[in-house]
Amino acid sequence: MLKERLQVLVSVEQRRCLELEAQRRGTSVASLIREAVDAHFCRVSQADRLRALEEIRATRGRFLTADELNRLVGDEHDGQLDAVTQPNPR
Amino acid sequence: MTFFVDANVLIYSAVSSHYREPCLEILGAIARGDAEGRTSTAVLEEIWHVELSGRAGALHGLAERAYTLMTPLLPVTDEAFRLALSVDAPALGANDRLHVGTCMAHGIEVVVTADQGFDAAPGLRRVDPLDPGARHKLVG
After folding, report:
1. Which tens digits make up the pLDDT trace of B2-45?
2. Cβ-defined contact of B69 to A40 (cutoff 8 Å)
3. How deeply is B66 buried, as exposed, middle or buried, from its count of CB atoms within 10 A (0-12, 13-18, 19+)?
4. Which of A42, A54, A73 to mutate to test the interface with B (most CBs of B within 10 A)?
5. Does A53 touch chain B (CB under 8 A)?
6. Calpha distance B69→B59 (Å, rounded)
7. With contacts defined as CB-CB under 8 Å, which chain A residues touch B53?
8. Dihedral (Cα; B118, B124, B126, B127), 10-degree rounding
9. Is any Cβ of chain A less than 8 angstroms from the Cβ of B8?
10. Cα separation of B124 and A13, whole Å?
11. Prior bond to B72 cis, omega within 30?
């Protein structure tokens, strides 16, 4: 049920985008905004977040220093670079 | 106050060390809506890579849980990349500069991270998860 009224200022360009998209979909600007709010902010409930937190708490990984983590992430990018720069053996 | 959450905070919440409880305290405040911590798609990619590499032990599912906890993620936009290119901090790698650019693009001035390299990041104040005073100012 829609009971809350919200007044929002947008730019001329944002209004134009919303109106064009509403026209393309055959719906209203208000409906588009409600859809965007649902899609962007309401996909995950607080209960979902707290459950994810407890699952993280239950995880038992191995400690790496911040430098080791940086090197590990850098290694991934180096590996990707190697994959595209090394000659393909035939 | 909105702050940026670096990958090590999420990873350290899932591994045994003295960082674990302070990092979980920060994530708990975010999960309850008591603190405005945000992270980016680039940070989640780092966590996913660490998880898949197996180098930090059994972190199966960490990237997905971190996503559930932190969504909506900050986008790494054209502007964020442009700002990252202008970061003058030789101690920071490309990924960390991208995080700095993302913070600049979104008006974020605080990063929570165990990585001391961020001390050199211009316009950004680092909060170490182990600093109880600074931590409590962020999470209440």
Report:
1. 999 999 999 999 999 999 999 999 999 999 999 999 999 999 99
2. no
3. buried
4. A73
5. yes
6. 16
7. 72, 76
8. -150
9. yes
10. 31
11. yes
CB within 8 Å of chain A, chain B residues 32-61: 32-33, 46, 49-50, 53, 55-61
Amino acid at B57: G
Q: What is the 3-state secondary structure of chain A?
A: CCCCCCCCCCCHHHHHHHHHHHHHHCCCHHHHHHHHHHHHHCCCCHHHHHHHHHHHHCCEECCCCHHHHHHHHHHHHHHHHHHHHCCCCC
Provide, as residue numbers in chain A, all residues whose Cβ is less than 8 Å from the Cβ of B62: 56, 59, 61
State both tokens at A70: 């940086």
C-alpha to C-alpha distance for B84 and B82, rounded to whole angstroms:
5
Q: Is B35 helix (H, G, I), strand (E, B) or coil?
A: coil
For B23-40, b/e burial (b = at least 16 CB within 10 A) is: bbbbbbbbbeeebebbbb
Using CA atoms, how far apart are residues B130 and A21, in angstroms rounded to an integer? 48
Exposed/middle/buried for residue A63 (C-beta within 10 Å: 0-12, 13-18, 19+): middle
Q: Does A24 touch chain B (CB under 8 A)?
A: no
Give the global pTM. Answer: 0.81
For residue A7, the distance in angstroms to the closest alpha carbon of chain B comes to 23
pLDDT(B125) > 70: yes
